[in-house]
Design a protein that fits this description.
mainly alpha; 4-stranded mixed sheet
């Protein structure tokens, strides 16, 4: 092993260790979405062959969310528990991202550049914020799968390998694409497209156009077939949700604190580096392949800063969150940025009198890049979010016979605590943390994400909450757990009574009416055997098939059959 390879492995291990330490210290507990995905994982742990989930929104269907990432956690959770399983799978995902970025960069550049690109990904401010503040675990799984499948697609599109090697590579890529399709919705159709675009541009020539056309047709067909349960469910239960405000749809270029989390903090020092890269981009064919996708993603990542995105995306503009485009773009540009930095450093270091300049420039860029990494790594400590609560007292209240088969609501606990409570206890709540699944008119007609933080949405949020509190019998709502005294006057005016004080500032309120058990669900369970089979069997089966085929591929390589 060369010294450069040993350095790469050492730095990679250190980087993975830092991420692992932060996760072990509980960074995921204060993220926006980690417990939401743990909640979905708990569904698959407890009900692998049932698509109906009764704990949120008086019942909803998990056909509204692709299951693979959650099933990856649920499977080892049978022996390890949900949270340890999540940490283990997340670390494996980080390792897959590093190796995936190395393989993706090798499509265009030499191994040294690929190693630098992989390390830049591991210490990326965008990756760090997505993992340790947003908690968008399925997006990371989807990206790791995408990077690896595109490396196999490149083999398929090459002219040199024998035909049987190309088709075997395509089969491996197809298995990974199926797993990707079962991971998340918008990341499938957009993330795969943008990362595949430089590869398609690289191979765009007359001799392989038929292979490119075949790939696009196969990919689109695979995505649609794998997501057919989602489309079938949405056709019978369409979502009529008014737009919910999100900071990434505003002017993200304005210099306000919120935009650190929607734009500037995701790009970090990559923004000025991308500006410098554009002056160099057209000099080589490899870099030219990235110009259009990088610029297009840069435009999309500006959200509502200009009317262009609303015009381009139409109704999708009100659904998408645009920080994902900044995340993708900062990582998509890593191969060309790594090559530019590598070339510049070596050019300057070989010229007498400029070695000091090369060292100073490299140190400055590295310092700025790592500053963004450290700031985002510690964001769960300094970013203003409700504290992580010990939910055992709340769970004990829900265990009481008076509240059995009746629903509850939380106010002021915070979205991560709402999801954590549902993950840990089977009681049903009117609220939830996945807007795409809800079918309750009071929520669908209001521009709010959660009833728990209704006050942050102004008058529409309070109006939606008031409708629910004034008619608790409609949805079988018996008890409210209150941690924000802002809502006390509304509870009193709606006929609710304070019955108990718990620890950590949580109060228990009861409805002033008798609430009958077993109130109806908002939607009836949607059972389709074919859809359940696809959702329950195909995701892990496709990934397992990839594993078997990959080991066979490696065995054939060692024997020299595919060389």
């Amino acid at each position: 092993m060369k010294s450069s390879e040993r350095v790469f492995l050492l730095v990679a291990v250190v980087g993975l260790g830092i991420h692992g330490l932060a996760l072990g210290l509980g960074s995921y507990q204060k993220t926006y979405d980690a417990y939401t995905h743990l909640f979905f994982a708990s569904h698959w742990l407890n009900s692998w062959w049932e698509a109906f989930e009764p704990r949120w929104y008086t019942g909803f269907s998990v056909f509204t969310y692709p299951p693979f990432a959650h099933q990856l956690v649920a499977l080892p959770a049978k022996w390890l528990g949900l949270e340890p399983a999540y940490l283990g799978v997340q670390m494996l995902c980080l390792g897959a991202l590093v190796t995936g970025m190395y393989r993706y960069t090798r499509i265009w550049f030499e191994p040294a550049v690929a190693r630098l690109s992989a390390l830049l990904l591991l210490f990326s401010p965008a990756l760090t914020m997505t993992l340790h503040l947003f908690g968008q675990y399925p997006n990371l799984v989807s990206l790791a799968l995408t990077l690896h499948l595109l490396a196999f697609v490149d083999i398929f599109l090459q002219s040199e390998p024998a035909a049987h090697k190309r088709w075997q590579a395509l089969l491996l890529a197809e298995c990974l694409l199926m797993a990707t399709a079962f991971t998340s919705l918008f990341a499938n159709f957009m993330g795969v497209f943008f990362f595949a675009l430089p590869l398609l541009i690289k191979h765009w020539r007359r001799e392989v156009w038929h292979r490119l056309l075949f790939l696009v047709t196969l990919g689109a067909g695979t995505l649609l077939a794998c997501l057919s349960p989602f489309f079938a469910y949405m056709r019978e239960h369409p979502l009529s949700q008014v737009q919910i405000p999100h900071g990434s749809r505003d002017n993200v270029l304005a210099w306000v604190p919120l935009n650190y989390f929607t734009f500037y903090g995701l790009y970090g020092v990559m923004l000025p580096v991308l500006g410098l890269w554009l002056f160099y981009a057209f000099k080589t064919r490899q870099h030219r392949a990235f110009v259009f996708p990088v610029l297009f993603l840069l435009l999309l990542s500006t959200g509502g800063a200009t009317p262009i995105n609303a015009w381009l995306l139409g109704p999708l503009f009100d659904v998408l969150t645009f920080d994902r485009f900044a995340f993708w773009n900062s990582l998509l540009a890593l191969p060309v940025v790594a090559d530019l930095l590598w070339r510049t450093y070596h050019t300057l270091s070989q010229q007498r009198g400029r070695r000091l300049l090369a060292g100073a420039g490299a140190t400055l860029l590295l310092g700025l890049y790592l500053t963004g990494f450290v700031v985002n790594l510690t964001a769960f400590r300094w970013h203003a979010l409700p504290p992580v609560l010990d939910l055992a007292p709340v769970q004990a209240v829900l265990q009481r016979p008076d509240y059995a088969q009746r629903r509850y609501l939380t106010l002021g606990l915070g979205g991560h605590n709402v999801s954590a409570l549902s993950m840990k206890h089977p009681a049903e709540t009117l609220d939830g943390n996945y807007n795409f699944g809800r079918r309750i008119p009071e929520l669908n007609q209001a521009p709010i994400a959660l009833l728990d933080d209704a006050k942050y949405y102004g008058e529409p949020g309070i109006d939606a909450l008031a409708k629910v509190l004034l008619d608790p019998r409609k949805y079988g709502l018996k008890v409210v757990f209150l941690r924000d005294q802002y809502y006390t006057p509304l509870l009193e005016a709606s006929g609710w009574h304070l019955v108990e004080h718990l620890s950590q500032g949580v109060d228990v309120w009861e409805a002033g009416l008798d609430i009958a058990p077993r109130s109806p669900y908002a939607v009836s369970p949607w059972h389709r055997p074919w859809a359940q089979w696809i959702w329950s069997v195909m995701p892990l089966s496709s990934f397992a098939a990839f594993g078997v085929l990959w080991f066979w591929w490696r065995y054939q390589h060692k024997r020299g059959v595919l060389s």
